[in-house]
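Re: the request from the purification team.
They wanted to know what the chain is likely to look like in 3D before they choose a buffer screen. I agreed to run a prediction and write the result into the notebook, where they can find it.
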Amino acid sequence: MSNEFSVEDRKELLGIARKTIEHYLKNGNKPLFNDVPEKFKAKRGVFVTLHKKGNLRGCIGYPLPVSPLFNAVVDNAVSSAFEDPRFPPLEIDELKEIDIEISVLSIPEKVERPEDVRVGVDGIIISKHGYRGLLLPQVPVEQEWDLDQYISYGCMKAGLSDDEWKKGVDIEVFQAEVFGELEIE
């Protein structure tokens, strides 16, 4: 996926995410943003990831384009900070230790075989019998997984056995434009 967003766009989207989390910590609700650029009004799949001292602190998103980009950033910034069931809600004193990353997703497309997945390029959605799991494209690179490990972890994320893909699962791939506060400071 080519870079669709300029450095200024990226800074603005990351600023929206940070302001949203700060506002929510202080007021308990989501802020309203006026004068949003037109390109932020297109519906997009988006994940917001929080890291604290290099470790995951929250990650939630919409895999499909169900909401305008800026709304998806607002919603998922709040969800990542306060509603990720893997972590306690973010505390105000943690805010200065958090860095934010945004992944803007392409539309998922079905692939026929696991070998069609490109590690480090494609995010995956694994599904079977109503179970569904998603991993962003940067995850296998960060974890140093090969293709088999990537697909296996995708199965486990879906609540399936790690070798379920060998018996047959549906695999969709997507790409993401990923950018974070650490890289544009």
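For the purification team: The radius of gyration is 17 Å.
Please add any questions underneath this entry.
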